[in-house]
UniProtKB/TrEMBL annotation:
Domain of life: Bacteria
Keywords: Hydrolase, Protease, Serine protease
Active-site residues annotated for this sequence: 204 (charge relay system), 271 (charge relay system), 472 (charge relay system)
Name of the protein: Peptidase S8/S53 domain-containing protein
Domain Peptidase S8/S53: 198-482
UniProt similarity note: Belongs to the peptidase S8 family.
GO molecular function terms attached to this record: serine-type endopeptidase activity
Biased composition (Basic and acidic residues): 1-21
Regions crossing the membrane: none
Gene3D superfamilies, sorted: Peptidase S8/S53 domain (3.40.50.200)
GO biological process: proteolysis
Protein backbone atom coordinates (compact mmCIF):
# COMPACT_ATOMS: atom_id res chain seq x y z
CA UNK A 1 0.00 0.00 0.00
CA UNK A 2 1.33 3.43 -0.94
CA UNK A 3 0.21 4.97 2.33
CA UNK A 4 2.41 4.89 5.43
CA UNK A 5 1.28 6.13 8.84
CA UNK A 6 3.54 7.82 11.37
CA UNK A 7 4.50 5.68 14.35
CA UNK A 8 3.03 8.25 16.77
CA UNK A 9 -0.04 10.38 17.12
CA UNK A 10 0.39 13.83 15.53
CA UNK A 11 1.60 16.42 18.01
CA UNK A 12 3.40 19.76 18.13
CA UNK A 13 6.97 19.78 19.39
CA UNK A 14 8.78 23.14 19.55
CA UNK A 15 12.12 23.22 17.78
CA UNK A 16 14.26 26.04 19.26
CA UNK A 17 16.96 25.39 16.66
CA UNK A 18 14.65 25.96 13.72
CA UNK A 19 15.54 28.90 11.51
CA UNK A 20 12.96 31.69 11.73
CA UNK A 21 12.49 31.63 7.96
CA UNK A 22 12.19 27.85 7.73
CA UNK A 23 9.19 26.74 5.73
CA UNK A 24 8.57 30.13 4.14
CA UNK A 25 8.11 29.59 0.38
CA UNK A 26 10.56 31.39 -1.89
CA UNK A 27 8.50 33.50 -4.28
CA UNK A 28 9.54 35.87 -7.04
CA UNK A 29 8.90 39.55 -6.45
CA UNK A 30 6.57 39.67 -9.46
CA UNK A 31 4.47 36.87 -7.98
CA UNK A 32 4.26 38.60 -4.60
CA UNK A 33 3.35 41.90 -6.21
CA UNK A 34 0.59 40.26 -8.25
CA UNK A 35 -1.19 39.39 -5.01
CA UNK A 36 -0.19 42.32 -2.81
CA UNK A 37 2.11 40.02 -0.89
CA UNK A 38 5.01 40.73 1.42
CA UNK A 39 7.46 38.50 3.28
CA UNK A 40 7.54 38.94 7.04
CA UNK A 41 11.23 38.52 7.91
CA UNK A 42 11.64 38.78 11.72
CA UNK A 43 14.88 40.79 11.51
CA UNK A 44 13.39 43.40 9.19
CA UNK A 45 10.00 44.24 10.67
CA UNK A 46 8.50 46.22 13.54
CA UNK A 47 8.19 44.05 16.67
CA UNK A 48 5.91 44.43 19.66
CA UNK A 49 7.72 45.00 22.96
CA UNK A 50 7.03 42.32 25.53
CA UNK A 51 5.82 39.78 22.99
CA UNK A 52 7.60 36.82 21.44
CA UNK A 53 9.46 37.63 18.25
CA UNK A 54 7.53 36.55 15.16
CA UNK A 55 8.74 33.96 12.70
CA UNK A 56 8.62 34.27 8.95
CA UNK A 57 5.46 34.12 6.87
CA UNK A 58 3.93 35.69 3.76
CA UNK A 59 1.00 38.07 4.09
CA UNK A 60 -1.01 40.65 2.15
CA UNK A 61 0.35 44.03 3.17
CA UNK A 62 -2.75 46.10 2.34
CA UNK A 63 -5.44 43.84 3.83
CA UNK A 64 -6.46 42.77 7.32
CA UNK A 65 -8.89 40.10 8.39
CA UNK A 66 -11.44 41.46 10.86
CA UNK A 67 -14.05 39.40 12.66
CA UNK A 68 -17.60 39.89 11.42
CA UNK A 69 -18.73 40.80 14.94
CA UNK A 70 -16.49 43.89 14.81
CA UNK A 71 -17.67 44.98 11.36
CA UNK A 72 -21.33 44.67 12.31
CA UNK A 73 -20.99 46.34 15.73
CA UNK A 74 -20.94 50.11 15.19
CA UNK A 75 -19.28 50.82 18.53
CA UNK A 76 -16.56 48.18 18.12
CA UNK A 77 -15.86 49.28 14.55
CA UNK A 78 -15.60 52.97 15.53
CA UNK A 79 -13.28 52.05 18.39
CA UNK A 80 -11.02 50.08 16.04
CA UNK A 81 -10.98 52.87 13.46
CA UNK A 82 -10.24 55.43 16.18
CA UNK A 83 -7.23 53.43 17.40
CA UNK A 84 -5.90 53.13 13.85
CA UNK A 85 -6.26 56.82 12.96
CA UNK A 86 -3.04 58.05 14.75
CA UNK A 87 -0.94 55.53 12.77
CA UNK A 88 -1.40 57.35 9.47
CA UNK A 89 -3.35 54.39 8.14
CA UNK A 90 -7.05 53.62 8.07
CA UNK A 91 -9.44 50.77 7.32
CA UNK A 92 -11.91 51.07 4.47
CA UNK A 93 -14.66 49.33 6.41
CA UNK A 94 -17.18 50.19 3.72
CA UNK A 95 -15.20 47.94 1.35
CA UNK A 96 -15.13 45.00 3.77
CA UNK A 97 -16.06 41.80 1.98
CA UNK A 98 -17.17 38.39 3.28
CA UNK A 99 -17.30 35.28 1.10
CA UNK A 100 -19.84 33.57 3.35
CA UNK A 101 -21.94 35.89 5.47
CA UNK A 102 -22.25 34.83 9.09
CA UNK A 103 -19.05 32.78 9.09
CA UNK A 104 -15.41 33.77 9.42
CA UNK A 105 -13.74 37.13 8.90
CA UNK A 106 -14.18 40.10 6.62
CA UNK A 107 -11.28 41.15 4.41
CA UNK A 108 -10.79 44.88 4.93
CA UNK A 109 -8.50 47.13 2.82
CA UNK A 110 -5.78 49.09 4.64
CA UNK A 111 -5.00 52.50 3.12
CA UNK A 112 -2.85 55.52 3.98
CA UNK A 113 -4.62 58.46 5.61
CA UNK A 114 -2.12 60.79 3.96
CA UNK A 115 -2.05 59.33 0.47
CA UNK A 116 1.38 57.72 0.98
CA UNK A 117 0.80 54.15 -0.15
CA UNK A 118 4.44 53.28 0.53
CA UNK A 119 3.64 53.55 4.24
CA UNK A 120 0.84 50.99 4.17
CA UNK A 121 1.71 47.77 5.96
CA UNK A 122 -0.76 45.53 7.76
CA UNK A 123 1.91 44.01 10.03
CA UNK A 124 3.22 47.39 11.21
CA UNK A 125 -0.34 48.52 11.85
CA UNK A 126 -1.02 45.51 14.05
CA UNK A 127 2.14 46.10 16.07
CA UNK A 128 1.23 49.74 16.67
CA UNK A 129 -2.23 48.73 17.84
CA UNK A 130 -0.69 46.23 20.26
CA UNK A 131 1.73 48.74 21.76
CA UNK A 132 -0.66 51.69 22.01
CA UNK A 133 -1.14 52.89 25.58
CA UNK A 134 -3.26 56.00 24.99
CA UNK A 135 -6.95 56.55 25.48
CA UNK A 136 -7.60 54.94 22.13
CA UNK A 137 -5.81 51.66 23.00
CA UNK A 138 -7.77 48.49 22.33
CA UNK A 139 -8.55 45.63 24.73
CA UNK A 140 -7.01 42.23 24.04
CA UNK A 141 -10.32 40.63 23.11
CA UNK A 142 -10.83 43.18 20.32
CA UNK A 143 -7.23 42.96 19.13
CA UNK A 144 -7.60 39.19 18.84
CA UNK A 145 -10.28 39.78 16.21
CA UNK A 146 -7.91 41.62 13.85
CA UNK A 147 -5.22 39.60 12.07
CA UNK A 148 -3.06 39.31 8.99
CA UNK A 149 -4.33 37.69 5.82
CA UNK A 150 -1.81 35.03 4.83
CA UNK A 151 -0.95 34.12 1.28
CA UNK A 152 -1.29 30.36 0.95
CA UNK A 153 0.66 28.24 -1.51
CA UNK A 154 0.24 24.82 -3.08
CA UNK A 155 3.94 24.08 -3.41
CA UNK A 156 7.36 25.64 -3.49
CA UNK A 157 7.37 25.92 -7.23
CA UNK A 158 6.38 24.27 -10.48
CA UNK A 159 7.83 23.67 -13.89
CA UNK A 160 9.83 20.64 -14.93
CA UNK A 161 12.28 20.46 -12.04
CA UNK A 162 11.56 18.69 -8.78
CA UNK A 163 9.41 21.38 -7.20
CA UNK A 164 11.90 24.11 -8.13
CA UNK A 165 10.84 25.35 -11.53
CA UNK A 166 14.30 24.55 -12.87
CA UNK A 167 15.02 22.40 -15.95
CA UNK A 168 16.36 18.85 -15.59
CA UNK A 169 19.93 18.55 -14.39
CA UNK A 170 22.61 17.64 -16.92
CA UNK A 171 24.57 14.40 -17.09
CA UNK A 172 23.72 11.38 -14.95
CA UNK A 173 21.36 13.49 -12.77
CA UNK A 174 19.28 14.75 -15.66
CA UNK A 175 16.14 12.81 -14.72
CA UNK A 176 13.27 14.99 -13.54
CA UNK A 177 10.34 14.14 -11.30
CA UNK A 178 8.64 17.46 -11.93
CA UNK A 179 5.87 18.41 -14.33
CA UNK A 180 6.55 16.93 -17.75
CA UNK A 181 4.14 15.65 -20.40
CA UNK A 182 3.67 11.89 -20.73
CA UNK A 183 1.13 9.58 -22.30
CA UNK A 184 -1.04 7.07 -20.45
CA UNK A 185 -1.73 3.82 -22.27
CA UNK A 186 -3.53 2.05 -19.41
CA UNK A 187 -7.31 2.57 -19.51
CA UNK A 188 -9.02 4.46 -16.71
CA UNK A 189 -10.79 2.10 -14.27
CA UNK A 190 -14.47 1.49 -14.90
CA UNK A 191 -16.90 3.83 -13.17
CA UNK A 192 -19.98 1.99 -11.95
CA UNK A 193 -23.52 3.32 -11.99
CA UNK A 194 -24.60 3.97 -8.41
CA UNK A 195 -27.67 5.51 -6.79
CA UNK A 196 -25.48 7.42 -4.35
CA UNK A 197 -21.79 8.29 -4.46
CA UNK A 198 -19.29 9.41 -1.88
CA UNK A 199 -18.27 12.97 -2.64
CA UNK A 200 -14.98 14.76 -2.10
CA UNK A 201 -14.60 18.54 -2.14
CA UNK A 202 -11.42 19.71 -3.89
CA UNK A 203 -10.37 23.32 -3.24
CA UNK A 204 -7.75 24.04 -5.88
CA UNK A 205 -7.06 25.59 -9.31
CA UNK A 206 -10.17 24.20 -10.94
CA UNK A 207 -10.60 21.75 -13.80
CA UNK A 208 -10.81 21.97 -17.61
CA UNK A 209 -14.28 22.11 -19.14
CA UNK A 210 -13.51 18.81 -20.88
CA UNK A 211 -11.00 16.00 -20.65
CA UNK A 212 -11.15 12.48 -22.11
CA UNK A 213 -10.60 10.90 -18.68
CA UNK A 214 -13.59 12.45 -16.87
CA UNK A 215 -16.84 14.32 -17.51
CA UNK A 216 -17.83 17.63 -15.93
CA UNK A 217 -21.15 19.32 -15.15
CA UNK A 218 -22.44 22.22 -13.09
CA UNK A 219 -24.03 21.57 -9.74
CA UNK A 220 -27.33 23.08 -10.97
CA UNK A 221 -27.65 20.38 -13.66
CA UNK A 222 -27.92 17.50 -11.19
CA UNK A 223 -25.99 15.13 -13.47
CA UNK A 224 -23.97 12.13 -12.33
CA UNK A 225 -20.64 13.28 -13.74
CA UNK A 226 -17.28 12.57 -12.13
CA UNK A 227 -16.64 16.29 -11.55
CA UNK A 228 -19.22 18.83 -10.42
CA UNK A 229 -18.39 22.55 -10.55
CA UNK A 230 -20.27 25.45 -9.00
CA UNK A 231 -20.71 28.51 -11.22
CA UNK A 232 -22.79 30.28 -8.57
CA UNK A 233 -20.00 30.01 -6.01
CA UNK A 234 -17.37 31.16 -8.52
CA UNK A 235 -19.45 34.19 -9.56
CA UNK A 236 -19.72 35.24 -5.92
CA UNK A 237 -16.00 34.71 -5.41
CA UNK A 238 -15.25 36.86 -8.46
CA UNK A 239 -17.36 39.72 -7.12
CA UNK A 240 -14.96 40.10 -4.20
CA UNK A 241 -11.76 40.01 -6.23
CA UNK A 242 -9.45 42.73 -4.90
CA UNK A 243 -6.04 41.92 -6.38
CA UNK A 244 -4.31 42.51 -9.73
CA UNK A 245 -4.49 38.77 -10.39
CA UNK A 246 -7.33 37.61 -12.68
CA UNK A 247 -10.55 36.91 -10.73
CA UNK A 248 -11.50 33.29 -10.08
CA UNK A 249 -15.01 33.94 -11.37
CA UNK A 250 -15.42 30.70 -13.31
CA UNK A 251 -14.57 27.10 -12.43
CA UNK A 252 -12.12 26.43 -15.28
CA UNK A 253 -8.43 25.87 -14.75
CA UNK A 254 -6.53 28.80 -16.25
CA UNK A 255 -5.19 30.93 -17.72
CA UNK A 256 -2.70 28.59 -19.36
CA UNK A 257 0.29 30.90 -19.51
CA UNK A 258 2.25 33.07 -17.12
CA UNK A 259 1.35 36.79 -17.37
CA UNK A 260 4.53 37.61 -19.32
CA UNK A 261 5.46 37.75 -22.99
CA UNK A 262 7.42 34.49 -22.71
CA UNK A 263 4.38 32.28 -23.24
CA UNK A 264 5.45 29.58 -20.78
CA UNK A 265 2.84 27.38 -19.13
CA UNK A 266 2.01 28.85 -15.71
CA UNK A 267 3.72 27.11 -12.80
CA UNK A 268 0.52 25.66 -11.29
CA UNK A 269 -1.78 25.50 -14.28
CA UNK A 270 -3.24 21.99 -14.29
CA UNK A 271 -2.74 21.50 -10.55
CA UNK A 272 -6.41 20.79 -9.82
CA UNK A 273 -6.73 18.70 -12.98
CA UNK A 274 -3.83 16.52 -11.83
CA UNK A 275 -5.49 15.99 -8.43
CA UNK A 276 -8.77 15.13 -10.14
CA UNK A 277 -7.04 12.50 -12.27
CA UNK A 278 -5.49 10.85 -9.22
CA UNK A 279 -8.92 10.53 -7.64
CA UNK A 280 -10.31 9.23 -10.94
CA UNK A 281 -7.65 6.50 -11.05
CA UNK A 282 -7.90 5.43 -7.42
CA UNK A 283 -11.58 6.07 -6.53
CA UNK A 284 -13.52 6.00 -9.80
CA UNK A 285 -16.91 5.70 -8.10
CA UNK A 286 -16.68 8.97 -6.12
CA UNK A 287 -17.76 12.41 -7.27
CA UNK A 288 -15.46 15.43 -7.08
CA UNK A 289 -16.88 18.83 -6.07
CA UNK A 290 -14.39 21.30 -7.56
CA UNK A 291 -14.14 24.80 -6.08
CA UNK A 292 -11.58 27.02 -7.81
CA UNK A 293 -9.83 29.07 -5.12
CA UNK A 294 -6.16 28.80 -6.20
CA UNK A 295 -4.52 30.95 -8.89
CA UNK A 296 -2.39 29.50 -11.68
CA UNK A 297 0.79 30.56 -9.86
CA UNK A 298 -0.14 28.38 -6.87
CA UNK A 299 -1.20 31.18 -4.53
CA UNK A 300 -4.51 31.59 -2.73
CA UNK A 301 -5.89 33.92 -0.11
CA UNK A 302 -6.57 32.78 3.44
CA UNK A 303 -9.91 34.59 3.47
CA UNK A 304 -11.15 32.79 0.36
CA UNK A 305 -10.05 29.34 1.55
CA UNK A 306 -11.86 29.95 4.85
CA UNK A 307 -14.93 31.10 2.93
CA UNK A 308 -14.85 28.03 0.67
CA UNK A 309 -14.58 25.69 3.69
CA UNK A 310 -17.61 27.37 5.27
CA UNK A 311 -19.45 27.15 1.96
CA UNK A 312 -18.86 23.38 1.94
CA UNK A 313 -20.06 23.16 5.56
CA UNK A 314 -23.16 25.23 4.70
CA UNK A 315 -24.00 22.78 1.91
CA UNK A 316 -23.63 19.80 4.26
CA UNK A 317 -25.89 21.37 6.89
CA UNK A 318 -28.49 22.39 4.29
CA UNK A 319 -28.57 18.89 2.78
CA UNK A 320 -29.03 17.32 6.18
CA UNK A 321 -31.81 19.81 6.83
CA UNK A 322 -33.74 18.58 3.82
CA UNK A 323 -32.60 20.99 1.07
CA UNK A 324 -32.70 18.83 -2.07
CA UNK A 325 -30.55 21.32 -4.03
CA UNK A 326 -27.72 21.41 -1.48
CA UNK A 327 -24.51 19.54 -2.32
CA UNK A 328 -23.12 17.60 0.63
CA UNK A 329 -19.67 16.00 0.62
CA UNK A 330 -18.05 13.22 2.66
CA UNK A 331 -14.36 14.23 2.55
CA UNK A 332 -12.49 17.50 1.93
CA UNK A 333 -9.02 17.57 0.36
CA UNK A 334 -6.72 20.62 0.55
CA UNK A 335 -3.39 21.03 -1.23
CA UNK A 336 -2.61 24.55 -0.05
CA UNK A 337 -1.34 26.04 3.20
CA UNK A 338 0.79 28.59 5.02
CA UNK A 339 3.21 28.94 7.94
CA UNK A 340 2.03 31.13 10.80
CA UNK A 341 4.02 33.99 12.31
CA UNK A 342 3.24 32.82 15.88
CA UNK A 343 6.53 31.63 17.37
CA UNK A 344 4.78 29.07 19.59
CA UNK A 345 3.36 27.16 16.58
CA UNK A 346 -0.19 28.00 17.68
CA UNK A 347 -1.84 29.94 14.86
CA UNK A 348 -4.54 32.50 15.35
CA UNK A 349 -7.34 33.44 13.05
CA UNK A 350 -10.27 31.61 11.60
CA UNK A 351 -8.78 28.76 9.56
CA UNK A 352 -8.87 26.36 12.49
CA UNK A 353 -12.51 27.22 13.14
CA UNK A 354 -13.47 26.45 9.53
CA UNK A 355 -11.68 23.08 9.61
CA UNK A 356 -13.18 22.25 13.00
CA UNK A 357 -16.67 23.04 11.76
CA UNK A 358 -16.27 20.41 9.05
CA UNK A 359 -14.85 17.75 11.33
CA UNK A 360 -17.63 18.36 13.87
CA UNK A 361 -20.05 17.68 11.02
CA UNK A 362 -18.33 14.29 10.67
CA UNK A 363 -16.39 15.22 7.52
CA UNK A 364 -12.66 14.34 7.54
CA UNK A 365 -10.19 16.87 6.14
CA UNK A 366 -7.11 15.62 4.26
CA UNK A 367 -4.43 18.29 3.79
CA UNK A 368 -0.99 18.48 2.20
CA UNK A 369 1.95 18.93 4.58
CA UNK A 370 3.89 21.25 2.25
CA UNK A 371 7.00 21.05 0.08
CA UNK A 372 9.55 23.23 1.87
CA UNK A 373 11.74 20.42 3.32
CA UNK A 374 10.97 21.81 6.77
CA UNK A 375 9.64 20.52 10.08
CA UNK A 376 7.75 23.76 10.68
CA UNK A 377 3.98 23.23 10.99
CA UNK A 378 2.17 23.97 7.74
CA UNK A 379 -1.48 24.91 8.16
CA UNK A 380 -4.20 23.75 7.84
CA UNK A 381 -2.50 20.31 7.68
CA UNK A 382 -0.87 20.84 11.08
CA UNK A 383 -4.27 21.13 12.76
CA UNK A 384 -4.00 17.33 12.83
CA UNK A 385 -1.65 17.85 15.79
CA UNK A 386 -4.08 20.03 17.74
CA UNK A 387 -6.54 18.66 20.25
CA UNK A 388 -9.71 17.71 18.41
CA UNK A 389 -13.28 18.15 19.68
CA UNK A 390 -15.03 15.06 20.98
CA UNK A 391 -16.85 13.05 18.30
CA UNK A 392 -15.13 14.95 15.46
CA UNK A 393 -13.91 13.37 12.22
CA UNK A 394 -10.13 13.01 11.72
CA UNK A 395 -7.73 15.47 10.13
CA UNK A 396 -4.98 13.86 8.05
CA UNK A 397 -1.75 15.79 7.41
CA UNK A 398 -0.03 14.13 4.47
CA UNK A 399 3.65 14.16 3.51
CA UNK A 400 5.05 12.73 0.27
CA UNK A 401 6.78 9.44 -0.48
CA UNK A 402 9.03 8.56 -3.39
CA UNK A 403 7.97 5.55 -5.49
CA UNK A 404 10.26 3.36 -3.34
CA UNK A 405 8.24 4.48 -0.27
CA UNK A 406 11.07 6.55 1.22
CA UNK A 407 10.11 10.10 2.25
CA UNK A 408 10.58 12.55 -0.63
CA UNK A 409 13.39 15.05 -0.10
CA UNK A 410 11.12 18.02 -0.83
CA UNK A 411 8.41 16.94 1.63
CA UNK A 412 7.86 18.62 4.96
CA UNK A 413 8.23 16.24 7.89
CA UNK A 414 7.65 16.54 11.60
CA UNK A 415 5.69 15.15 14.54
CA UNK A 416 2.60 17.00 13.26
CA UNK A 417 2.51 14.90 10.03
CA UNK A 418 0.15 11.97 10.47
CA UNK A 419 0.91 9.97 7.34
CA UNK A 420 2.80 9.85 4.03
CA UNK A 421 1.52 8.82 0.60
CA UNK A 422 3.18 8.55 -2.78
CA UNK A 423 3.70 12.10 -4.04
CA UNK A 424 6.75 11.96 -6.33
CA UNK A 425 6.76 10.85 -9.95
CA UNK A 426 2.99 10.41 -10.17
CA UNK A 427 1.19 10.20 -13.52
CA UNK A 428 -2.20 11.86 -13.85
CA UNK A 429 -4.48 13.96 -16.03
CA UNK A 430 -3.46 17.37 -17.33
CA UNK A 431 -5.32 19.95 -19.47
CA UNK A 432 -4.89 19.03 -23.14
CA UNK A 433 -4.79 22.68 -24.25
CA UNK A 434 -1.55 23.39 -22.37
CA UNK A 435 1.20 24.18 -24.85
CA UNK A 436 3.94 26.64 -23.98
CA UNK A 437 6.58 28.49 -25.93
CA UNK A 438 9.42 26.12 -25.00
CA UNK A 439 10.05 24.03 -28.09
CA UNK A 440 11.99 20.84 -28.83
CA UNK A 441 15.73 21.34 -29.11
CA UNK A 442 15.79 19.65 -32.49
CA UNK A 443 13.24 19.16 -35.26
CA UNK A 444 13.58 17.74 -38.76
CA UNK A 445 11.33 16.63 -41.56
CA UNK A 446 9.80 13.18 -41.62
CA UNK A 447 8.83 10.99 -44.54
CA UNK A 448 5.31 10.91 -43.06
CA UNK A 449 2.90 13.62 -44.09
CA UNK A 450 2.06 16.15 -41.33
CA UNK A 451 4.64 14.63 -38.98
CA UNK A 452 8.05 15.83 -37.79
CA UNK A 453 10.94 14.11 -36.12
CA UNK A 454 11.74 16.01 -32.94
CA UNK A 455 13.33 15.74 -29.53
CA UNK A 456 11.16 15.72 -26.41
CA UNK A 457 8.93 18.77 -25.98
CA UNK A 458 8.75 19.53 -22.25
CA UNK A 459 6.12 22.24 -22.74
CA UNK A 460 3.49 20.47 -24.86
CA UNK A 461 0.82 18.70 -22.80
CA UNK A 462 -1.59 17.91 -25.63
CA UNK A 463 -1.48 14.23 -24.61
CA UNK A 464 -3.62 15.19 -21.62
CA UNK A 465 -1.30 13.55 -19.06
CA UNK A 466 1.76 14.53 -17.06
CA UNK A 467 4.21 13.45 -14.40
CA UNK A 468 4.33 15.74 -11.38
CA UNK A 469 5.48 15.70 -7.75
CA UNK A 470 4.43 17.30 -4.48
CA UNK A 471 2.60 16.78 -1.20
CA UNK A 472 -0.27 18.44 -3.10
CA UNK A 473 -0.66 15.09 -4.84
CA UNK A 474 0.10 12.88 -1.87
CA UNK A 475 -2.98 14.38 -0.15
CA UNK A 476 -5.52 13.18 -2.78
CA UNK A 477 -3.80 9.77 -2.87
CA UNK A 478 -4.36 9.50 0.90
CA UNK A 479 -7.90 10.83 0.48
CA UNK A 480 -8.60 8.15 -2.13
CA UNK A 481 -7.49 5.42 0.27
CA UNK A 482 -9.77 6.90 2.93
CA UNK A 483 -12.73 7.17 0.54
CA UNK A 484 -12.30 3.56 -0.55
CA UNK A 485 -12.14 2.41 3.06
CA UNK A 486 -15.30 4.40 3.90
CA UNK A 487 -17.06 2.82 0.91
CA UNK A 488 -16.40 -0.64 2.36
CA UNK A 489 -19.01 0.09 5.03
CA UNK A 490 -21.50 1.63 2.60
CA UNK A 491 -21.99 4.89 0.71
CA UNK A 492 -25.34 5.90 2.14
CA UNK A 493 -25.70 9.48 3.34
CA UNK A 494 -25.38 9.76 7.11
CA UNK A 495 -27.38 12.56 8.71
CA UNK A 496 -25.93 12.27 12.23
CA UNK A 497 -22.53 14.03 12.52
CA UNK A 498 -21.37 11.68 15.27
CA UNK A 499 -22.13 8.59 13.20
CA UNK A 500 -20.44 10.15 10.17
CA UNK A 501 -17.33 10.81 12.26
CA UNK A 502 -17.42 7.26 13.63
CA UNK A 503 -17.56 5.89 10.08
CA UNK A 504 -14.51 7.99 9.09
CA UNK A 505 -12.53 6.89 12.16
CA UNK A 506 -13.41 3.25 11.54
CA UNK A 507 -12.21 3.55 7.94
CA UNK A 508 -8.98 5.18 9.11
CA UNK A 509 -8.44 2.40 11.65
CA UNK A 510 -8.82 -0.22 8.90
CA UNK A 511 -6.22 1.57 6.80
CA UNK A 512 -3.78 1.66 9.71
CA UNK A 513 -4.26 -2.04 10.35
CA UNK A 514 -3.16 -2.83 6.79
Amino acid sequence: MRLVFADHEPHLKPNPRRDHMSGVPELAYTTLDRHGGRVLAPGQVVRTAGRSAPVGTIYRYDRLLVDESVINDDEARRRLEGAISPTGMSLESGSASPIVSGQGPYRVPVVSSHGDQAGVDAWSLLQRLRTSTGDESLPEDLLAKVRLEHLMICSKGGGIGVGTGEPPLPGPHKHSLGRIPVDLVAPMPERRKLDRRLRVAMLDTGVPSRHPAFDVSDRSEGRDTFVVVDHAFQTKLGEYNDSPAPPLDDPWDGPVHEPTLLGEVASHFGHGTFITGLLRQMSPDVQVYSLRVVHNDGLSYEHEIIGALHHVADQIEAARGGDAEAFAVDVVVLATGYVDEAADDVPGGWMGGAVERLTKLGVPVVAAAGNQSSDRPFYPAAFAAHEQPENAAPIMSVGALNPNLEIAMFSNEGPWVSCYATGAGLVSTYPCEAAGSLEPERRSKSSMRNRYRESYDFDDFSSGYAVWSGTSFAAPVAAAYLLNAIAESGVEEIQDPVKAAERAHAALARLKSR
